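Key idea: predict the complex, not the pieces.
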Amino acid sequence: MNLQSLTLTQARDLLDNRRLTSRQLTDYYLQRLEKYDSYINSSLLIDYEGASRAADLADHRLAHGEGGGVLGIPYIIKDNILTKGLKTTAGSKMLANYVAPYDATVVSRLKQAGAVLLAKANLDEFALGSSTENSAFGPTHNPYNLSMVPGGSSGGSAAALAADFCTFSLGSDTGGSVRHPASLCGVVGYRPSYGAISRHGLVAMSSSLDAIGVLARSAVDVATVMAIIAGPDKYDATASLVLEAPAKVNPIINWSKIKIGWPAEYFSSGLNSEVAEHLINIKNILSDKGATIVPVNLPLTSYGVSAYAVINMAEVSSNLARFDGLRYGHWVGGSNLLETYLNNRKDGFGAEVKRRLMLGTYFLSAGEGESYYKQAQTVKTIIAREFKEVFTQVDYLLTPATPTVAFPLGVKVNDPLSLYLEDSLLTPASLAHLPAVAIPIGWNLAGLPIGGQLIGKRGEDYNMLMVAQAIQDVINITPQLLPWE
Amino acid sequence: MDKEIIKKLAQLAKLKVDDSEVEIYDHQLSDVLHHLDSLSGAIDFINKHGIKDDEGREANTNKVIHSSLANDEVENWPEEEIAMSLIRARQNDDGFIIVPAIKS
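Result:
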């Protein structure tokens, strides 16, 4: 049986109809990870024993008449999400040997639903980055061209999915860290409405913006995973948004009832021409199908990435203050307490973390620095207001996900500003706490994936995912071969 | 941003940086700050168009933020409370409370 690039929906059908066992599917992925991950470096830890055990347990449940959801479905999770008994490094030397004493809520929900955890995915250190080059454990490579970045910070999660190492994966998205790598790796990457998924057990980075997101081969697959992991959680007071899951996932859309906004500010001069052409082509296809395309304006869009950077760094400097090596984490020591802090943090953190800690400290200090923070909070408020107004005219917004396709490893690693700008089209939805999904919309001439982004109204995540699936069905892009197979 | 500020920020963030790193950070952080200066353009736009937030307040930075943050005023712990705490501690030495060592 050809198991290549199975969607969750296809795997579900095979498992429920006893044409495939979870153990067979799990072994297929474990063998691929073993054989090929040395090219990609998508995963920091592969849990061969745990995955086999979980697959056997799922097969037992399937044999006793259970089915549906994610039962028996293998997945990979970003290594900043806690897994009891397994290392959670956050891609940092600081936590290189940290073993979590409890499962994150998303992990315990998936475990209960019978999903099979295969591996912990590589990431930019503490999820700070847009290329997965900032990992203390080496960069992840783009499966479609090994000399290119996979995007970030959930680059391992996206690359593992694109390399056919799992059926779905989880990442975290603060300013675009799920959607960015999804776009560069040609998979679907979804950021939920803020508060829809519990962050209990996610290593905190920027708490007013952090969200756990889902990556899969189709938007319907994302919705299936969402139905398991979303919902209030007594361990996370911010997880208060209740989404109405549809009784049946149905991506059949009456396009004549759909109004799609086309925001001019997302198509500025910095946009790669191939990305722009693909988006315009999709706009025309949807218009031909009967959708109403409405030109709209979101004037503060170009300031989103700056506002995001300031808020992010301020919160990073606060959240990462806890990593001093005393109770857990990297230890160097010193002759007194201050020297111990300094030595542990100097040796435990990488360059990007240090840059953000210093700038964040600056933005939270009295005087000149704090004016950036005040301005950023104001811009955040007004960006949210702009979206609110636009969503009185349209149902969804269609935009590019990233200004360019994947870029070569190494070219931006010492230029933090150019990496921050990679998220320029993704940060506005994050600031406004809106759901957004990156979907693959085609390939450039060099064979690299191009991603589009659909942004929805807060709380209307499932409707947005159904429209995203309908777009995927309409454009039906041809898969590309992986060059290293 | 200059080298002295970089050193001060590193100290506040409990980071040790040597002189060669200060040189690199000075360049990189100044680049980032220069870009972030564009935020003032957004504020000009907001003020020019009289844009208000959802509660109908003027989206003026100082008004929005100062209404929600407390002033940063450092207050020292009263001497008599420090003395009392040291007396109550199981062990103390030179103004510090001695606690059991953390065993790895």
